[in-house]
């Protein structure tokens, strides 16, 4: 344990760990020292001088090493002639700090006075007004008037786009460099900097595209003034008009804790709408950060295209019907089908929805199929990360392995947390067939060819430098993904990972075990509840009655369109009239997760609650409720009228959830740093967590259960054949999924569908980066843009998932240079 | 053409001066090199340097922005930087500057029509006792001119102009 040090701040005795900064020690004692540039998540720089205080240190007798005492027998104190910055000075034994003395107050007053010489004071039209540290600290510590000449204020540009997402108001910036340091130290994308010097100092971004980072939104939270605003919220509302609801981001398996800020507004026809998404503190999940996809891709639920009425197919056409009629039609079809029912659902749904669907399928002896391209969730339940796992606690002694995944694109906040763990001393092994951003932080980068995943993981258990780094580590975690892999490939990879962890005794304890980098927020939950993917989905659908929920197979793959045509009956339950809905016999309109409550299970197997943020669209119902209604029509009674009761039943039924309930999931405990509405100046506008930190599920290894891991199944060799190209799927953060596509802002970052080739392959075809080629895959041809990636092998081309190209697993592809349009002179 | 293609020897020499793990320290000499020919640093050159030193182009740009002897816009081939700080002002730097402006027909910060000279006002160049004084920044580096007057300065500019048209 670190040495404890006792000091006195404003007459209050405090005991804190040695090395703590005075500003943080004061915070512990409930004393606020005003700061602008200091941020508890970043290294101090002492740039703004707002935190000036008087610091006295006991004078030591050099011969005895004891403090010298004054006449009264008190230790004699020595004060520097000038004020000192509380944000750069660490505490020491016997220190005495005055934060409110006359001298300290004079320091605070003049710092504010100086800061405001160049400040526009346009609070009445500033987005930050109402939650602005500069505004608040000026009221609390400022002199109230200025001796500077108003006419000599700097006038600068007020609408400088740093990229499409973030705008800079140059007049408002106080040059605290929090944003630059965040990008540098925390995000690892050093795309912001200062231009010029002195009074002309300005924030710039020279990257292409501007402010090229998926973490850019966080800078608007920690900017202590209204200099940085998001293009999304800019002039959207005043902070005090907003209500907040706790939620969980549904975009990826990290499960960042978020807050939806809403307001009822005339602009939206008097409806209550979401105005912005903010991070909510959970130091074990996302700390106080989130990524831009989570922040900006929430507009889909407001789309005009939402379904609001059930539909039934009549005379070949879908037409509106009542809920009773539609659920009856669905229920009857299922009652008839019985074991010929296939429920096809995705990890977009909540635990409650999936549980009801699974119970329904079980009771009619049908099948519950998970719609995914990635396997191995059952293994994660066995050797999945131990209860109490927290990337934030990993450092020296822990080895993190990332295999077949580009974390920056697939689970951004994990990328950030893994990077941070490495900076605290953890070892990182990144094994991928191509270069990824995380390589920069790796102690070992392993580059294998597509198809060699299993062997690569197997090598981790062998002797040697890399093997030792993994096998001999005190703690080891493996994050596995599906870069270039389909269902069977990723299942084999997961098995190899699970075995490697188990063999080296890296399971069943905190900070050890397996994590799946899933495509959807609740894929792991679906596995826990018993959903399993189907190797041959096309075959499994033949002649069946299919109940598709929260998935759009027909939109993803033409082969599945054909498969759905060959079924007996199709029921589609979704927010939108998807391609699947268009060919269904019954369509049921579901609520968005922002309109109801429920829980998701994150990739780290943390079960977390989300709460309703906005009223549900008229005519829609929550998925779990629709399922009970359909079930009733098929004479199956699913208990549970509310999400919380469904969860109680789930917890009784599923071992890993045993003992959990909504109240437990809503428990909180104090977290550091202290953030929240009263502490804006310190941590930023991130929300404090008042609605639950969630609970991490136990794994079979945690519970010391006996289990045997399956053998690694041989997967058909995935090698490029002579003269043929092997197209492998990769995941991009900004894809053409419905959430990003309906977010106008992010849309600009998606870019076009592309194919990435090795330079020599491109040369052979006679194409260059940026040109178009015709890509044929699975009988579908599409014009796509060429990208060059010299880190892949020549016979392989990368094709992004969810970009309109049917690629769920590696497949043969052919490329043709698109016809050049000849222009006559 | 990239910087390394244009000046292979120089780039190598500069990089050799710094240990590989601290190669970012080579940013300043490389920027001078990039500025040598045209008197300013292009965005492409900044990108080249960023790539070579494995830092972000924004970091390179920040250095360019911070130091007043780096320029990111094409201006005069010769930058005449006249000190107008207090000690020099006491020795007539202001009047000197004023008449220089009217002789050249430009304002401070502007460039002559032929693109030869950009006139700039700067702070102390540590030659206060020999004011009026200025330095000329060009591809060849910095040169000091002390105890100047307008006639001498105009002669100097004429000479530069001649040399330019002969080359
Ligand atoms: S933009 Fe905001 S965070 Fe960045 S330096 Fe200016 S005031 Fe600080
Ligand atoms: S990292 Fe994942 S969970 Fe977190 S905000 Fe981004 S998309 Fe959402
Ligand atoms: S100098 Fe301490 S907070 Fe800025
Ligand atoms: S003041 Fe001009 S050189 Fe010093």
Task: Describe this structure as you would to a colleague.
The complex is a heterodimer of chains A (825) and B (167). Chain A has 825 residues and is α/β, with parallel strands linked by helices. In chain A, the strands form eight sheets. A seven-stranded mixed sheet of chain A has the order 16-15-26-25-24-17-18. In chain A, strands 1, 2, 3, 4, 5 and 6 form a six-stranded mixed sheet that branches. The mean pLDDT of chain A is 94. Chain A is built from 26 helices and 35 strands. The longest helix of chain A is centred in the middle third of the chain and has 17 residues, at 487-503. Chain A is 25% helix and 21% strand. Chain B has 167 residues and is an alpha+beta fold. Chain B has two domains: 3-66, Arc Repressor Mutant, subunit A (Orthogonal Bundle), CATH 1.10.10.1590; 78-166, Glutaredoxin. Chain B contains eight helices and four strands. Chain B has a four-stranded mixed sheet with strand order 2-1-3-4, with helices on one face. In chain B, strand 3 and strand 4 (141-145) form a beta hairpin. In chain B, helix 4 packs across helix 5 (57-66). The longest helix of chain B is centred in the last third of the chain and has 17 residues, at 150-166. The model of chain B has no long low-confidence stretch (mean pLDDT 95). Chains A and B meet through strand 9 of A and helix 5 of B. One FE2/S2 (inorganic) cluster is lined by residues 35-38, 46-51, 85, 87 of chain A.
């Amino acid at each position: 344990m670190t040495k404890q040090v006792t000091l006195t701040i404003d007459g209050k005795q405090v005991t804190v760990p040695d090395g703590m900064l005075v500003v943080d020690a004061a915070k512990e004692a409930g004393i606020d020292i005003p700061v602008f540039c200091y941020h508890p998540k970043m290294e101090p720089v002492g740039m703004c001088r707002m935190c000036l205080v008087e610091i006295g240190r006991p004078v030591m007798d050099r011969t005895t090493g004891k403090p010298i005492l004054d006449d009264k027998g008190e230790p004699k104190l020595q004060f520097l002639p000038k004020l000192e910055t509380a944000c750069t000075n660490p505490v020491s034994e016997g220190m005495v700090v005055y934060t409110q003395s006359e001298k300290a107050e004079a320091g605070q007053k003049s710092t504010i006075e100086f800061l405001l010489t160049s400040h526009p004071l346009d609070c009445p039209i500033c987005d930050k007004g109402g939650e602005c540290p500069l505004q608040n600290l000026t009221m609390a510590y400022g002199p109230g008037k200025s001796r500077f000449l108003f006419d000599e204020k700097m006038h600068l540009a007020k609408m400088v786009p740093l990229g499409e997402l973030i705008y800079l108001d140059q007049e408002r910036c106080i040059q605290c460099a929090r944003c630059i340091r965040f990008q540098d130290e925390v995000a690892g994308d050093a795309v912001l900097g200062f231009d010029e010097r002195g009074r002309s100092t300005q924030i710039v971004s020279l990257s292409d595209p501007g402010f090229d980072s998926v973490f850019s939104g966080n800078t608007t939270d920690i900017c202590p003034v209204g200099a940085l605003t998001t293009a999304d919220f800019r002039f959207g509302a005043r902070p005090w008009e907003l209500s907040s609801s706790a939620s969980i981001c549904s975009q990826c398996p990290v499960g960042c804790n978020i807050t939806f800020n809403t307001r009822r507004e005339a602009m939206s026809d008097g409806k209550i709408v979401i105005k912005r998404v903010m991070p909510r503190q959970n130091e074990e999940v996302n700390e106080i950060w989130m990524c831009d996809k989570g922040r900006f891709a929430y507009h889909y639920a407001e789309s005009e295209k939402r379904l609001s009425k059930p539909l039934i197919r009549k005379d070949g056409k879908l037409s509106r019907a009542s809920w009773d009629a539609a659920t009856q039609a669905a229920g009857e079809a299922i009652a008839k089908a019985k074991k010929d029912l296939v429920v096809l659902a995705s990890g977009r749904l909540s635990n409650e929805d999936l549980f009801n669907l699974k119970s329904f399928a079980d009771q009619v002896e049908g099948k519950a199929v998970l719609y995914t391209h990635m396997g191995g969730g059952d293994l994660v339940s066995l050797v999945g990360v131990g209860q109490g796992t927290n990337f934030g606690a990993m450092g020296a002694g822990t080895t993190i392995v990332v295999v077949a995944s580009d974390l920056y694109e697939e689970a951004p906040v994990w990328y950030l947390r893994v990077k941070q763990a490495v900076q605290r001393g953890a070892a990182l092994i990144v094994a991928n067939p191509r270069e990824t951003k995380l390589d920069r932080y790796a102690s070992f980068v392993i580059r294998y060819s597509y198809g060699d995943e299993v062997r690569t993981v197997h090598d981790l258990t062998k002797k040697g430098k890399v093997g030792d780094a993994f096998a001999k580590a005190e703690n080891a975690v493996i994050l596995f993904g599906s870069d270039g892999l389909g269902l069977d490939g990723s299942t084999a990879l997961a098995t190899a990972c699970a075995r490697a962890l188990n063999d080296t005794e890296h399971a069943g304890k905190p900070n050890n075990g397996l994590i799946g980098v899933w495509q959807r927020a609740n894929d792991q939950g679906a596995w826990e509840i018993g959903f399993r993917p189907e190797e041959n989905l096309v075959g499994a659908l033949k002649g069946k009655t299919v109940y598709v929920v929260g998935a759009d197979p027909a939109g993803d793959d033409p082969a599945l369109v054909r498969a759905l045509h060959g079924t007996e009956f199709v029921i589609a339950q979704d927010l939108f009239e998807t391609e699947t809905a268009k060919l269904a016999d019954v369509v049921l309109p579901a609520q968005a997760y922002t309109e109801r409550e429920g829980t998701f299970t994150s990739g780290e197997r943390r079960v977390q609650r989300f709460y309703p943020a906005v009223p549900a669209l008229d005519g829609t119902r929550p998925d779990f409720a629709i399922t009970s209604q359909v079930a009733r029509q098929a004479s199956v009674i699913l208990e549970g009228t509310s999400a919380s009761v469904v969860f109680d039943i789930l917890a009784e039924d599923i071992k890993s959830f045993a003992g959990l309930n909504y109240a437990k999931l809503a428990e909180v405990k104090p977290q550091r740093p202290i953030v929240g509405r009263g502490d804006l100046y310190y941590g930023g506008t991130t929300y404090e967590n008042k609605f639950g930190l969630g609970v991490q599920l136990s794994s079979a290894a945690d519970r010391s259960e006996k289990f045997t891991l399956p053998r690694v199944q041989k997967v058909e060799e995935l090698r490029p054949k002579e003269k043929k190209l092997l197209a492998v799927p990769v995941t991009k953060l900004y894809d053409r999924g419905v959430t990003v596509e309906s977010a106008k802002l992010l849309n600009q970052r998606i870019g076009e569908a592309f194919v990435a080739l090795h330079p020599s392959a491109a040369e052979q075809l006679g194409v260059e980066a940026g040109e178009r080629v015709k890509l044929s895959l699975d009988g579908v041809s599409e014009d796509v843009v060429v990208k060059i990636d010299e880190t892949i092998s020549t016979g392989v081309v990368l094709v992004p998932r969810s970009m309109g190209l049917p690629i769920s697993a590696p497949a043969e592809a052919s490329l043709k240079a698109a016809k050049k349009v000849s222009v006559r002179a | 053409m990239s910087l390394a293609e244009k000046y292979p020897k120089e780039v190598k020499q500069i990089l050799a001066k710094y240990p590989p793990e601290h190669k970012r320290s080579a940013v300043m000499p490389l920027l001078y090199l990039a500025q040598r020919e045209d008197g300013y640093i292009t965005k492409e050159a900044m990108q080249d340097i960023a790539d070579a030193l494995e830092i972000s182009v924004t970091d390179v740009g920040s250095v360019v922005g911070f130091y007043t002897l780096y320029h990111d816009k094409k201006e005069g081939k010769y930058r005449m930087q006249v000190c107008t700080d207090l000690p020099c002002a006491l020795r007539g730097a202001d009047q000197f500057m004023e008449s220089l402006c009217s002789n050249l027909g430009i304002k401070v910060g502007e460039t002559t029509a032929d693109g030869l000279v950009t006139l700039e006002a700067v702070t102390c160049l540590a030659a206060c006792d020999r004011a009026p004084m200025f330095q000329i920044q060009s591809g060849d580096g910095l040169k000091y001119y002390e105890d100047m007057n307008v006639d001498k300065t105009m002669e100097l500019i004429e000479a530069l102009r001649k040399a330019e048209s002969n080359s």
